[in-house]
Amino acid sequence: MTHNDNLDALRFYQRRGFHICCIHINSMEIARKIKPCPEIGDYGIPIRDEIDLELIL
Q1: Disulfide check for 5: which of 20, 32, 45, 53 has CB 3.0–4.6 Å away?
Q2: pLDDT by residue, tens only, the chain of 57 residues
């Protein structure tokens, strides 16, 4: 799982055959109630969603 702003992680996993299997829309709103997290991430992209990736064997 990674955040929508983490383009480097998305590139890393997809180059290794991982597929996006689930997107948790606006999940960071809930996470911020529990733990502080910045609003803006890498490359100025707003951090809103979490993305699950899986490797299909």
Answers
A1: 45
A2: 999 999 999 999 999 999 999 999 999 999 999 999 899 998 999 999 999 999 999
DSSP string for 12-23: HHHHTT-EEEEE
18 class by beta-carbon count within 10 Å (0-12 exposed, 13-18 middle, 19+ buried):
middle
How many Å apart are CA 56 and CA 53, to the nearest integer?
10
Strand order in the sheet with 2-3: 2-3, 50-54, 19-24
This prediction has a pTM of 0.86
Q: What is the C-alpha to C-alpha distance for residues 3 and 46, in angstroms, rounded to an integer? A: 10
